[in-house]
């Protein structure tokens, strides 16, 4: 059993408190922290959390409790200082993405976790779904030989789907595409080499910054990924993980994941198509803990056993996903010029 403190009880944090943490039996909650008294009151009133387990500061909680893990579910700009303090206090940490605002901050947190012998995990919840796991295994087994081209489309119409963050900088690349970029790395078992990206904001858009983008990404093993994403699409809605076509030497692997739309959840899908053949559905194995429960159960198991599983999104591994986000943003600011990932990782 892993004793945990949750830090950050706002809108998304409360979702963790209510919908995620109770579903992971290896987590035993000992404390809840938020600097906003109203957030504290909500978990007490709505979830029946005892007052003695609620704190207005992390240091106060750490002094009064014995804990192994901090579950950091705060706004992005608070990630770096809070995660840093959690690691200094000797806690293992799971934190929402992106785990830092800059590569320099991310490196500092990774090194601090190493120095203190603690686990730092980024909650890349899209990894914990049947379709991307199966796709990664099929690619790893060279089901259809080497990958030639990956095409990914993400389409949503934010104004009609309850989106709220109209003034967020880089609402596509930093807030949404980071999931797709991280999945690229996981499924291909490879890291990006360079990227070219263009973004724009269409007429009559409520966004303050660019909600549409296209990117070409070259990976170290030579695979090229063509990516198109839009928060202002009038086309058919895609699953949250997008629609993927992975064109290999002897056939295609076609899949989608997290098919949630207007409150309805659909299954992950994956099909195989041999060259010149018809697409055939591939049976997907169910997983015990999916999405955010998967990330939380994963770090709990690492803390309990000390063994790091395949496709574990450590802070060190996630530096490459963070770098990919920052490289695409940089390329877009340079009107689509190629940006080497090494430039961002320096």
TrEMBL record:
<feature type="domain" description="GFO/IDH/MocA-like oxidoreductase">
    <location>
        <begin position="134"/>
        <end position="252"/>
    </location>
</feature>
<dbReference type="InterPro" id="IPR051317">
    <property type="entry name" value="Gfo/Idh/MocA_oxidoreduct"/>
</dbReference>
<dbReference type="GO" id="GO:0016491">
    <property type="term" value="F:oxidoreductase activity"/>
</dbReference>
<comment type="similarity">
    <text>Belongs to the Gfo/Idh/MocA family.</text>
</comment>
<feature type="domain" description="Gfo/Idh/MocA-like oxidoreductase N-terminal">
    <location>
        <begin position="7"/>
        <end position="123"/>
    </location>
</feature>
<dbReference type="InterPro" id="IPR055170">
    <property type="entry name" value="GFO_IDH_MocA-like_dom"/>
</dbReference>
<dbReference type="InterPro" id="IPR036291">
    <property type="entry name" value="NAD(P)-bd_dom_sf"/>
</dbReference>
<dbReference type="Pfam" id="PF01408">
    <property type="entry name" value="GFO_IDH_MocA"/>
</dbReference>
<keyword id="KW-0560">Oxidoreductase</keyword>
<dbReference type="GO" id="GO:0000166">
    <property type="term" value="F:nucleotide binding"/>
</dbReference>
<dbReference type="Pfam" id="PF22725">
    <property type="entry name" value="GFO_IDH_MocA_C3"/>
</dbReference>
<protein>
    <submittedName>
        <fullName>Gfo/Idh/MocA family oxidoreductase</fullName>
    </submittedName>
</protein>
<dbReference type="InterPro" id="IPR000683">
    <property type="entry name" value="Gfo/Idh/MocA-like_OxRdtase_N"/>
</dbReference>
